[in-house]
Write a structure and sequence with these properties.
mainly alpha; Preprotein translocase SecY subunit; 2 domains; 3-stranded antiparallel beta sheet; two-stranded antiparallel ribbon; 17 helices; 5% strand; globular; transmembrane helix; transport; SecY
């Protein structure tokens, strides 16, 4: 991996992308340290420590929420907006056609996503300011409250723009990178917390060692599942064009076990955090209900939350796989180029075969991801340790890191071909 980084640094375009991504990450981290004026952060920190949903939300913002900094809303509104638009695309034919209509269609879809994110940011900013942190505001002046709300909305939109810029001019998916940085920024704090707990006797040393071993095993298994591929053999018929013989080659279709990558995990976490935003507008009873039945700290809420998380991971795995891996298009391209799967007739039989294989692989991958997410989550819950790098967060961190590695390699391969052609 170090040799790949060293090699990529020598390529001007790749180096520019790396530097651009690092610059955006630096701006994000600076934004998470600039507090919103007129807010007592000590009160918010106590709220976060006593509410598991707020703690999860704080993890994705890289600690920005507990310190109530500019980026306290995080990238959440944009992620939730992406979920809504993607789900609507499946239900509405006009949006589906727009998605397939090339660059112009993609721009319009992005515009709809941004507008939806703005609406969600407004709702979330108002709910958080007037609900969660109202007691931490040092003034109840309407102008001051409005200023806080506008500041949160504007900062969230800037963060959305930064994510788009990273995707376009940097490395990796911008939204995933921002969440990735937010999670790993909490790791030093978590390590210090565990060390202090061991020193004070709150946690036994052997339990801390078991926790570390489980984390390492989880990271290894997540890496394995993200890299696992099933190769479907493809054979191309020989054909004569002029006086030359073409075709007759053997190839394969790579079907990744985790075809959808890290997005199902991010979407599941974002969707589970959404009820909390709605509860902010519905009074203390609604907030208590959500904290009781959608909380990872209480016994009832823990089981409900984790069960819903598993179901959502499976759902979004299938959902994203159908978008990213279109068996109809693959079968049609194979047929047009004289390709076929040995023992399977071209056309509908090929589509049915690929769909059946893809469905089985996706189910296995989704269940594996869900189990991997649950092992550290259950360990942390029953050991009563507050860790950011647990379950869902491990999947996100490892998934994003592997995606960065793959994209870096693809850029290097592409530049190598360009150098050869020149």
């Amino acid at each position: 991996m170090l040799s790949k980084i060293k090699q990529s640094w020598k390529v001007k375009d790749v180096r520019r992308r790396i530097l651009y991504t690092l610059m955006m990450i630096l701006i994000f981290r600076i934004g998470t340290t600039i507090p919103v004026p007129g807010v007592d952060t000590s009160i918010i920190s106590k709220l976060v420590s006593g509410n598991s949903l707020l703690a999860l939300y704080n993890m994705f913002t890289g600690g920005a929420f507990s310190n109530f900094t500019l980026f306290a809303l995080g990238i959440g509104p944009y992620i939730t907006a992406s979920i809504i638009i993607q789900l609507l695309t499946v239900g509405f034919e006009s949006l589906k056609e727009l998605q397939k209509s090339g660059e112009e269609g993609r721009k319009k879809m992005n515009m709809y996503t941004r507008y939806t994110a703005l609406v969600l940011a407004i709702i979330q900013a108002v709910g958080i300011t007037l609900g969660v942190v109202k007691g931490a505001l040092k003034s109840d002046n309407i102008f001051f409250i409005t200023t806080v709300i506008i500041t949160l909305i504007a900062a969230s939109m800037i963060l959305m723009w930064m994510g788009d810029r990273i995707t376009e001019k940097g490395l990796g998916n911008g939204s995933s990178i921002i969440i990735f940085v937010g999670i790993i920024s909490r790791i030093p704090t978590d390590i210090i917390s565990v060390v202090n707990s061991v020193q004070s006797g709150t946690i036994k040393l052997w339990l801390a060692i078991i926790l570390a071993v489980i984390m390492l095993i989880t990271i290894t298994l997540v890496t394995f599942i993200n890299e696992a591929v099933r190769k479907i053999p493809v054979q191309y018929a020989k054909k004569v064009v002029g006086r030359k013989l073409y075709g007759g080659q053997n190839s394969h279709i790579p079907m990744k076990v985790n075809q959808s990558g890290v997005m199902p995990i991010i979407f599941a976490s974002s969707l589970l955090a959404f009820p909390q935003t709605i509860a902010l507008f519905m009074g203390e009873n609604a907030q208590n209900f959500v904290s009781t039945y959608l909380s990872t700290s209480g016994d009832i809420g823990f089981w409900i939350y984790r069960s819903l998380e598993v179901l959502l991971i499976v759902f979004f795995s299938y959902f994203y796989t159908t978008i990213s891996f279109n068996v109809d298009d693959i079968a049609e391209n194979m047929k047009n180029n004289g390709g076929f799967i040995p023992g399977i007739r071209p056309g509908r039989p090929t589509i049915d075969y690929l769909s059946r294989i893809l469905s089985r692989i996706t189910l296995a991958g989704a269940l594996f991801l869900a189990v991997i997410a649950m092992i550290p989550a259950f360990t942390v819950h029953f050991m009563s340790v507050n860790m950011s790098l647990a379950g869902t967060s491990i999947l996100i961190v490892v998934g994003v890191a592997l995606e960065l590695k793959r994209q870096l390699e693809s850029h290097l391969v592409m530049r190598s071909y360009q150098g050869f052609l020149k």
